[in-house]
């Protein structure tokens, strides 16, 4: 794979673009093409536009930008593509170019300033979430919702709908947890930003399960954001800074760097492509999803008689090519019925902060996803990404559906016979 | 040509702004189908959702004398879904419904934008499938399959698209909606259904299709035989047919293609073989078993290096995945390629293979081959680097020479891709002036104004022009008093 | 142009085919006496005949074996009968390519004899097929039991050479099994009754002769059981070769024990597969419920003879398999004396009606057409005395838009009405 460059016209990037043979096999895999049926909102069409820009046939126009904005970055097209076109990194390069052009409307720039100013900063995020907790508890949220103000600012409405339950964090996970029995090795846990604040229990369960599986787990408290949001948003300089910082923070003497949030894991695996340095390449090479490690362990699982269905987070199935491990793990839980989900790897519309930036399309895709979930008859949806968990939960609430959304690790922890080891 | 404001207004009023694409960026993405050598940007792209809307579009365009170009998924290989004369491109991609499923009568009625494989997916659980399976079937639309009379690996046994189309609804060039055929047998009159399949949008726009469904066979056996060279593999093919066995599919790949597929999909085919034959037998289990043994024996008699049989559905899917993604996978070994689609009588396969080796040497270009060996349909990919000056020209020259050689052996210009823009100029190789003229006049019945997908299928040739009169038989002297 | 006198015209015709092969008069076609009958020896002669007819505004009626002349609207004019029986050569036989090219006058039986040596078949078996010309089978889209597995002439005709209305020799299609080069002109010609061109040469797709064919007769107490059996067979993995329904009268005509309805089921493949599927077929029949007996190899010949030898009115009924019971019932209700048989798996049936006169036939025909019209089907009078067909529409209704297109095609290619005028759908 060519080294990540910041210009579409750079030879390495142009080579990648030209490896597209225009066969169209990506079209049915693309959520926005499924929704709209238009070529320019398909991967093939977007590559064609990028190529036109790179070759000077097209300028970076508002319309061009719009079609790229609508792309989820889900990389389902990469899974489908027989020619191996690295669409994800092409998109990021194209977005970087758009960013540098600096001609975005004010509203968008304000929104992005908020998003990139808060989400990738765990401490700032904690403060904002604390404020929001009070905003809800003190009835302000109800007031604002009734006022209709949110309807006029769709991104705010989106964010409002997503944040349903803001738990008080029961503290960060321990910085070290020893393996049960003889250690197979040592792993570092990426605690994530949204994950550590809104799904802290997932981090706790992750560490306990890894320890039970025989790994010493370290979870450095000082770790920052993996930079996924900035990468997918085309803010490549900011991303590179985060990548370097994280690579320096994470211990280098670990066998694996474990992620339990698909978006983060996918970004880590791209580190080497964008930052060609030893530390970042090492992080990329050692990045694994928690399910990939747990599936190799012999975990003592007890009966959990539930009917569940599994949704593939894009950045796990397409970004990291991990599909069988989570399913295999679920399959090992006695009495757990796993109903296959049609279009399981079609994006739910979360895609990082896509559901805030492009709420309309995100809603359309969410509706498709909910319809497929309803078809399974399952009441529990299992998926390994906080964004998906929040997005699908929002969709269920809006439709009055009684759905439980859980991370695979949570379900495993529930089924675990902890006393057996 | 630019569209008049009134035409644009009419289209927008009819379909709403979300149904009409006017931006340059949008229209740019519609300027080619899979054969990017041919580019033709439409002046507008419309996305109707019903037959009535399609008819209204055609009427608006007819009145304004604006060309109409239908488009499905845009995966054709003949430059058929391009607008070299501008005009309005009608994308069928929002007409994707299954209108009726009638398994008791083994048929279904669908809208043209429905993806081919999705129809089979909808009925496979109940034991049925839609037989035409072009390699593009995971994305190509049934309307597109009908327009080009698409084939695919299984057409050796099951026939091509036209053998599975029972009826059509079409908005023809006059703006009329014509329904022909249907699910009942033996309708009186001309077989307009059969005549319309393969018209490549030059008669009009198909808006509904009634198709035949087949029951899934009891057993399927897929085998791979590798040979030292294409010639031996071709001889094995002839021997299999001569033994009275019609496999469901008989696909051949050469070493260049084997390399590309292995790189794309993972090690599916053995490296080092000069050619591999992918043989699929389906039908009643006992029949499949008996035939598989015979086929394996024949391959060994013809010096097969190795014969393996897929043990389960996963292995079978892997063997096929390589074949179906071959055209895309070739992106790994070449920057660009021309894809040929000529046919020779099967018995002439070894001859055309030798000819191909000679042409490839003569022009110093790599030929990667994947094709339907069972029916003599060739798909050589003539690889070239479009950045090197002169290579495209050499590739085109090689293409022409190969085509001429195929015709000389009694073959056809196109086995399944169709004519479009790419092969229109070659039709005179296969047809005399009277034959071309007949086709021109047939087209004129459906499209008197010449607005339906102009510049496609028929060449610009005197026989395809007004006023041309084919030579008539000379009558004996003294016929007239 | 000066009007040519008849003797001069006769002379011109003689000059084309030779005196021995031109007759004044000749056997009538559908009750109409021709002015001349000519039997060309080459396709060029045939083309020249048509060209002359075009110039002189004669009505040309092609004729092969003459087995299907009582078809369609009775002809208003028959000036020149173009007898194709001398055009009977097998031009090119390529067993390795599974293709054969024949002249239109070659009979299906003659071709079969030629193919037998290489164990190949052209799987077309309309009643009396062996004696019928292939051009005639193509022009009338005639079909028989083998269509269940192999389709009809429509699916087997690869290429066709024909003489246009003005005599120009024209080729359509290809000589290879797979081709999509230009329009599918052969499809246009199949079933067209020669009204767009006189068929002269046909290139056909062949199939390997199956190793072994076994046939069973399944008898049922009610037609509903027969239909259930058909449905079960179609919804199974059994690969039927022929699947015909026979009612009591057809059974009697075949000298078989009579039941309310019966199915003749055949499977043709390698012997082990025949045996393997036999069990499944028998189980399906017994479940219907029905009784099954094995038939000998001569059954299909007997069946063919019974249908071909029938001497009354033949109706071709096009319906759908799921409506078998309704259709049989409808025929029984309106034509109590009729015998019905046909391809049950496709809904392509024949009703054989004896001693029918118009007053009896017209209302039943209309009611039958109404019944099958519900699924878009139709009833064609495939064979009936001229007097009968003069008083009714032998083809049945054709949707207006489609008919308009057919008319436009006919006008384009035969504006003078030279080719078999007035007989086809819409009196085209």
Task: Give the uncertain stretches of chain A in residue-range form.
Answer: none
What is the average of the pLDDT values of chain B?
92
Largest sheet: number of strands, sense, barrel closure of chain B: 7 strands, antiparallel
Strand order of the largest sheet of chain B: 15-12-14-13-17-18-16
- Percentage of β-strand residues of chain A: 5-15%
The residue fraction in helices of chain A comes out at 40-55%
Estimate the helix proportion of chain B, in percent. 25-40%
Give the total of beta strands of chain B: 18
Overall residue-averaged pLDDT value of chain A: 92
Strand order of the largest sheet of chain A: 1-3-2-4-5
Largest interface: B-C, 106 and 104 residues
Structure, explained:
The complex is a heterotrimer of chains A (421), B (481) and C (428). Chain A is an alpha/beta fold. Chain A contains 25 helices and nine strands. In chain A, strands 1-3-2-4-5 form a five-stranded mixed beta sheet. In chain A, strands 7-6-8-9 form a four-stranded parallel beta sheet, sandwiched between helices. In chain A, helix 24 links the parallel strand 8 and strand 9 (404-406). Chain B is built from 16 helices and 18 strands. A seven-stranded antiparallel beta sheet of chain B has the order 15-12-14-13-17-18-16, sandwiched between helices. In chain B, strands 5-6-10-8-9 form a five-stranded antiparallel beta sheet. The relative contact order of chain B is 0.11. The model of chain B has no long low-confidence stretch (mean pLDDT 92). Chain C has 428 residues and is α+β, with helices and mostly antiparallel strands. Chain C has four domains: 6-83, 2-Layer Sandwich (Uridine Diphospho-n-acetylenolpyruvylglucosamine Reductase, domain 2); 90-208, Uridine Diphospho-n-acetylenolpyruvylglucosamine Reductase, domain 3; 212-305, Alpha-Beta Plaits (2-Layer Sandwich), CATH 3.30.70; 312-389, Alpha-Beta Plaits (2-Layer Sandwich). Helix content of chain C is 34%, strand content 23%. Chain C is built from 15 helices and 19 strands. Chain C has helices at 6-17, 43-55, 108-116, 134-140, 147-150, 153-156, 185-189, 223-234, 248-253, 271-287, 299-308, 324-334, 358-373, 386-390, 400-413; strands at residues 22-24, 36-38, 60-63, 80-83, 90-94, 99-103, 120-121, 157-163, 169-173, 198-205, 207-208, 212-220, 242-247, 261-269, 291-295, 313-318, 339-343, 348-353, 378-383. Chain C has an eight-stranded antiparallel beta sheet. A five-stranded antiparallel beta sheet of chain C has the order 5-6-10-8-9. Chain C has a four-stranded mixed beta sheet with strand order 1-2-4-3, covered by helices on one side. Chains in contact: A-B, B-C. The interface between B and C is large, with 106 and 104 residues.
């Amino acid at each position: 794979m060519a080294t990540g460059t910041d210009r579409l016209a750079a030879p390495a990037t142009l080579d990648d673009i030209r490896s597209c043979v225009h066969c169209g096999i990506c079209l049915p895999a693309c959520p926005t093409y499924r929704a709209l049926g238009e070529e320019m909102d398909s991967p093939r069409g977007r590559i064609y536009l990028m190529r036109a820009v790179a070759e000077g046939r097209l300028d970076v126009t508002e319309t061009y930008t719009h079609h790229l904005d609508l792309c989820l970055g889900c990389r389902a097209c990469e899974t489908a593509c027989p020619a191996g076109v690295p669409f994800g990194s092409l998109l990021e390069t194209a977005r970087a170019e758009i960013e540098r052009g600096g001609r975005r409307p004010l509203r968008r720039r304000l929104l992005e300033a908020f998003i990139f100013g808060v989400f990738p900063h765990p401490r700032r995020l904690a403060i904002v979430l604390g404020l929001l907790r009070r905003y809800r508890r003190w009835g302000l949220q109800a007031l604002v919702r009734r006022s209709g103000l949110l309807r006029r600012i769709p991104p705010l409405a989106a964010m409002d709908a997503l944040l349903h339950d803001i738990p008080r964090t029961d503290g960060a996970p321990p910085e070290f947890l020893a393996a049960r029995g003889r250690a197979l090795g040592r792993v570092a846990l990426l605690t994530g930003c949204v994950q550590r604040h809104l799904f802290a229990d997932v981090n706790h369960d992750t560490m306990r399960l890894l320890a039970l599986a025989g790994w010493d787990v370290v979870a450095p408290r000082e770790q920052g954001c993996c930079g996924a949001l900035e990468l997918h948003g085309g803010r490549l300089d900011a991303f590179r800074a985060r990548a370097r910082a994280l690579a320096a923070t994470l211990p280098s003497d670990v066998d694996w760097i474990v992620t339990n949030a698909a978006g983060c894991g996918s970004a880590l695996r791209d580190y080497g492509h964008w930052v060609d340095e030893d530390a970042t390449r090492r992080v990329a090479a050692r990045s694994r999803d928690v399910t990939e490690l747990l599936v190799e362990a012999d975990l003592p699982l007890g009966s959990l008689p539930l009917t569940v269905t599994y949704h593939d987070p894009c950045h796990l199935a397409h970004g990291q090519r991990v599909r069988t491990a989570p399913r295999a793990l679920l399959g090992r839980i006695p009495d757990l019925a796993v109903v296959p989900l049609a279009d399981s790897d079609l994006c739910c519309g979360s895609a990082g902060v896509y559901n805030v930036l492009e709420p309309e399309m995100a809603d359309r895709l969410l509706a498709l996803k909910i319809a497929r979930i309803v078809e399974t008859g399952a009441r529990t949806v299992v998926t390994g990404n906080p964004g998906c968990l929040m997005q699908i939960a929002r969709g269920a609430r809006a439709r009055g559906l009684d759905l439980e959304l859980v991370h695979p690790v949570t379900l495993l922890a529930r089924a675990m016979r902890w006393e057996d080891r | 040509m630019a569209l008049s404001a009134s035409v644009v207004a009419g289209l927008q009023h009819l379909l709403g702004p979300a149904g009409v694409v006017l931006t340059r960026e949008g229209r740019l993405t519609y300027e080619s189908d899979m054969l990017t050598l041919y580019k033709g940007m439409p002046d507008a792209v419309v996305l109707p959702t019903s037959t009535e809307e399609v008819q209204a579009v055609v009427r608006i365009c007819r009145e304004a004398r604006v060309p109409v170009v239908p488009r499905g998924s845009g995966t054709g290989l003949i430059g058929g879904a391009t607008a070299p004369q501008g005009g309005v491109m009608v994308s069928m991609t929002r007409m994707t419904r299954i209108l009726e499923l009638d398994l008791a009568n083994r048929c279904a009625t669908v809208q043209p934008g429905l993806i081919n494989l999705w129809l089979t997916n909808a009925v496979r659980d109940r034991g049925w499938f839609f037989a035409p399976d072009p390699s593009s079937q995971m994305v190509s639309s049934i309307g597109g399959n009908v327009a080009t009379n698409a084939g695919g690996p299984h057409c050796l046994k099951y026939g091509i698209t036209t053998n599975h189309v029972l009826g059509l609804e079409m908005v023809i060039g006059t703006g009329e909606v014509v329904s022909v055929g249907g699910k009942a047998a033996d309708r009186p009159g001309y077989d307009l259904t059969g005549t319309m399949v393969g018209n490549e949008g030059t008669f009009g726009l198909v808006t509904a299709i009634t198709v035949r469904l087949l029951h899934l066979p009891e057993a399927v056996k897929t085998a791979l035989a590798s040979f030292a060279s294409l010639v031996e593999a071709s001889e094995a093919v002839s021997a299999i047919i001569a033994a009275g066995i019609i496999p469901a599919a008989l696909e051949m790949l050469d070493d260049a293609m084997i390399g590309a597929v292995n790189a794309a999909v993972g090690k599916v085919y053995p490296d080092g073989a000069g050619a591999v034959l992918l043989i699929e037998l389906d039908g009643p289990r006992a029949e499949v078993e008996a035939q598989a043994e015979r086929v394996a024996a024949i391959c060994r008699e013809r010096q097969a290096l190795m014969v393996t049989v897929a043990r389960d559905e996963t292995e079978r899917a892997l063997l096929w995945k390589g074949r179906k993604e071959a055209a895309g996978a070739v992106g790994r070994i070449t920057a660009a390629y021309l894809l040929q689609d000529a046919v020779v009588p099967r018995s002439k396969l070894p001859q055309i293979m030798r000819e191909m080796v000679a042409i490839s040497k003569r022009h110093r270009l790599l030929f990667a081959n994947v094709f339907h060996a069972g029916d003599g349909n060739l798909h050589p990919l003539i690889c070239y680097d479009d950045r090197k000056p002169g290579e495209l020209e050499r590739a085109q020259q090689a293409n022409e020479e190969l085509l001429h050689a195929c015709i000389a052996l009694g073959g056809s210009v196109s086995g399944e891709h169709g004519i479009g823009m790419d092969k229109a100029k070659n039709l005179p190789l296969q047809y005399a002036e009277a034959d071309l003229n007949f086709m021109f006049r047939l087209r004129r019945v459906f499209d008197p104004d010449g607005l339906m997908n102009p510049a496609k299928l028929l060449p610009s040739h005197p026989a395809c022009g007004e006023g041309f009169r084919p030579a008539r038989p000379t009558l004996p002297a003294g016929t007239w008093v | 142009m000066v009007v040519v006198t008849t003797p001069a015209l006769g002379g011109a015709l003689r000059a084309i085919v030779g005196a021995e092969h031109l007759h004044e008069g000749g056997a009538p076609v559908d009750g109409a006496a021709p002015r001349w009958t000519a039997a060309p020896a080459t396709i060029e002669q045939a083309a020249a005949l048509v060209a002359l007819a075009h110039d002189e505004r004669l009505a040309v009626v092609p004729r092969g074996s003459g087995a299907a002349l009582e078809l369609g609207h009775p002809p208003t004019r028959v000036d020149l009968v173009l007898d194709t029986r001398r055009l009977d050569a097998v031009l090119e036989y390529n067993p390795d390519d599974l293709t054969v090219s024949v002249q239109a006058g070659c009979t299906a039986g003659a071709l079969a004899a030629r193919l037998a040596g290489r164990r190949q078949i052209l799987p077309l078996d309309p009643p009396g097929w062996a004696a019928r010309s292939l051009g005639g089978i193509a022009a009338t889209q005639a079909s028989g039991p083998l269509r269940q597995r192999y389709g009809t002439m429509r699916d087997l005709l690869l290429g066709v050479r024909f003489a246009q209305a003005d005599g120009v020799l024209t080729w359509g299609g290809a000589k290879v099994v797979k081709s999509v080069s230009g329009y599918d002109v052969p499809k246009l010609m199949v079933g067209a009754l020669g009204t767009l061109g006189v068929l002269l040469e046909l290139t056909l797709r062949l199939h390997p002769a199956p190793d072994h064919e076994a046939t069973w007769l399944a008898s049922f107490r009610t037609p509903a059981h027969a239909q259930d059996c058909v449905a079960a067979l179609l919804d199974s993995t059994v690969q039927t070769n022929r699947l015909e329904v026979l009612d009591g009268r057809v059974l009697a005509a075949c000298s078989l024990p009579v039941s309310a309805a019966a199915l003749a089921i055949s499977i043709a493949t390698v012997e082990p597969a025949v045996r393997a599927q036999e069990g499944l077929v028998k189980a399906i029949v017994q479940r219907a419920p029905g009784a099954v007996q094995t038939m000998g190899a001569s059954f299909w010949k007997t069946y063919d003879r019974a249908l071909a030898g029938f001497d009354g009115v033949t109706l071709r009924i096009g319906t759908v398999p799921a409506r078998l019971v309704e259709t049989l019932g409808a025929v029984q209700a309106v034509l109590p004396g009729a015998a019905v048989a046909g391809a049950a798996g496709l809904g392509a049936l024949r009703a054989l009606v004896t001693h029918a006169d118009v007053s009896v036939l017209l209302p039943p025909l209309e009611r039958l057409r109404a019944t099958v019209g519900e699924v878009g089907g139709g009833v064609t009078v495939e064979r009936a005395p001229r007097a009968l067909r003069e008083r009714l529409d032998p083809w049945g209704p054709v949707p207006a838009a489609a008919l308009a297109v057919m008319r436009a095609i006919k006008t384009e290619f035969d504006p003078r009405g030279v080719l078999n005028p007035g007989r086809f759908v819409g009196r085209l």
